[in-house]
Amino acid sequence: MVSGAVFAGCAAGLIAALLHFWFVQPLILAGEQFESGERVHFAAPAGHAHDHGTAADAAAEGAADGAAVAQAAPDAEAEAGHDHSAHEHGTAGHGTGPDIKRDLLTVAFTVLIYVAYAFILVAGFGAATAMGQRVGPLQGLLWGLGGYAAFQLAPALGLPPELPGSVAADLGARQVWWWATAGLTAAGFLLLGYGRKPWAFVLAGAALALPHVIGAPTLGDYFGVAPPELAAAFAARVLGVGLLAWAALGWIAGHFWSRGDGV
Amino acid sequence: MKTMTSVKTLSGSLAQAAGSIMAVMAIGVTLMFVAGHAQSATLHDAAHDMRHATGFPCH
Predict the structure, then answer these.
(1) Domain coordinates of chain A in residue numbers?
(2) Apex CA B57: angle with CA A58 and CA A181, to 5°?
(3) In this predicted model, what pLDDT tens digit does every residue of A69-88 receive, in sequence order?
């Protein structure tokens, strides 16, 4: 059981890492350029400011927004600041080719997180099997999609994936909401999938809705320094890559589970 | 995972399997917390890009 989970997690993690470097990493690097001030959203191109009055106005407005960030969200800004000053790899990759150490760590941690997901999925397979349910690749795929909904999609409804440079509410509060949303969504999907009584479906609906009725912690205003197009593309690609990698994870884990390999 | 093996082959009770199911679940959740949420500076920096790319609240 454990070795099957490790294998499925590694395979899905490598798929996720491949898709990450294809779709997501370029946007992270671009976001960091805006975060560090190397690029400025709405900045007038050097030497052409006279051609672009509206752009210059917008840049001035952007600078004012920057000041507002420092005043209105000192905690969030300070929090982001301390972490980013600690990033030895922060912008090391820019212009000097890929940052191998940074990228290898990203691959390693992506594999690690998918192994973690795989353990949680396989624990679910164990419970389903003990209750007399068959688990094969098809059921694994459904479990994988459920896991994706619980651990990525539902939390993203309240806390969209953050492009570096985003300013968000207090980290602790967001983490609490994230875990509660993941847990309640997982419980809701299990009740939908395996519940037999009407009350189970009512309870499922309540569990799925509750985190969003309460609402994720937000700042109530927007302080991002990156273009909205970049942040939107980032969020969409993160969710798309997650869907594909979770589908692969569930299918592979279900495949190994049904064959009894690695038990 | 001997317990789990026998439970699978016998399709036995959930109570019998509960111990190993909980253990595997606990390993998964712990790994997820360490890789995705723990705020040690070293861990945060190493896992930074993955955390952003997985939608975890990062900083």
Answers:
(1) 2-87+98-259
(2) 120
(3) 444 444 444 444 444 444 44
Share of chain A above pLDDT 70, in %: 78
Contacts of A178 in chain B (CB under 8 A): 37, 56-57
Q: In chain B, what residues touch A28 (CB-CB under 8 Å)?
A: 49, 52-53
ipTM of the predicted assembly exceeds 0.85: no
> Judged by CB atoms within 8 Å, which residues 17-46 of B form the interface with A?
17, 20-22, 24-25, 27-29, 31-32, 35-37, 39, 41, 44-46
In chain A, the percentage of residues whose pLDDT exceeds 90 is 64
pLDDT value for A104: 96
Whether residue B28 and residue A112 make contact (CB cut-off 8 A), yes or no, is: no
- The pLDDT value recorded for residue A73 is 43
> Cβ A127–B17 below 8 Å, yes or no?
yes
What are the residues whose beta carbons fall under 8 Å from the beta carbon of A25, sequence distance 6 or more? A103, A106, B49, B53
Please tell me which of the candidates B7, B22, B53 has its beta carbon nearest to residue A24: B53
**Residue A143 in contact with residue A178, Cβ under 8 Å?**
no
What is the predicted pLDDT for the residue at A96?
58
| Domain range summary for chain B, segments of one domain joined by + | 2-54
- Which of the 8 DSSP states describes residue A20? I
